Amino acid sequence: MLSFALVxxxxxxxxxxxxxxxxxxxxxxxxxxxxxxxxxxGGFPELxxxxxxxxxxxxxxxxxxxxxxxxxxxxxxxxxxxxxVSDFLVTKGVQVAxxxxxxxxxxxxxxxxxxxPPGTPFEVAGLAISQGQLVxxxxxxxxxxxxxxxxxxxxxxxxxxxxxxxxAGFFNAVSGLYPVLINGVNIGSNxxxxxxxxxxxxxxxxxxxxxxxxxxxxxxxxxxxQPGYSDGAWDWETGEWLQMVGAFDxxxxxxxxxTTLVIEDSTGAPLELNQxxxxxxxxxERTVGSHLGVFAxxxxxxxxxxxxxxxxxxxxxTWTTIEPSTTQVQYxxxxxxxHSSPLQATMVTNHAVLLTGLTPNTGYxxx
Length: 367
Known about the structure:
By secondary structure, the chain is mainly beta. It is about 5% helix and about 40% strand. Strands 1, 2, 3, 4, 5, 16, 17, 18, 19 and 20 form a ten-stranded antiparallel sheet that branches. Strands 6-23-8-21-22 form a five-stranded antiparallel sheet, covered by helices on one side. The chain has a three-stranded antiparallel sheet with strand order 7-10-9, with no helix packed on it.
């Protein structure tokens, strides 16, 4: 009989009306949580729906990828090929994808149209590195909240990357517009009173954060511009959500209609976790110029690492289980499984059974 352990995860209530649900594993090394806020009674002033992913950067199967250079690359003009976040997930074969840096059409400072075709060349704002190749250099104090990763996913966050930090030794990098969380302190309220529309009203937000020990990368979206569902967030609210999920440092990335968080579903198709304002308003995801993707392996099943080693009239079957359990193998020449090895009642996670009396050069079914 298999033995299971049941763990009940309680919902974390930080404010009377602000709730963060439990972390649920969705891939090996990646957990998902949903947050909500209903205005009133001490909570945030806006209606908010939040999606958060926690990525274990110490997991050896986690790999990061960012938007590469476009064909016929021209620095400060033609830097990346635009595509939706869902298209980036499919094209790169990643399990998670999210928008990252701000971007614009070459030669302009205006936000591009939502409906530009895939492959449209964009100029990326702030530092961007893809697989060891510089895509966009940091050219000033704007859009300078940079997060850089080495080849083994060791992260560095620079709240203001100007003068520009050396990029030597870094394999991937993205940049946000500005920091909202520095050394555990929420600085989002510093932007109150600004006339910039990014600061002076609630907006859909994308935010990236790192845990204090740098083991975890947090990817956060707050939906907005959808009355009755989610209004968006102020900068200080974004900083507080980052703190709630576990971040010690964090940056506000490109937001608004760009805010999109997508995962691979069980069929390999993209599944949008958040409810993008671009989709709500235009029926389709925005074409964006900067993305971050995460490769991850599926969650392990209960039984793993099954190996069968035949030897003339015998075979050794080994396997592992994620929880301690008893050990037994059923086997036969057909899938009727009429024969069983003796039951080993000791509860273990590493299992081995020797089957004897087998017929040489004959195929057997076992389970």
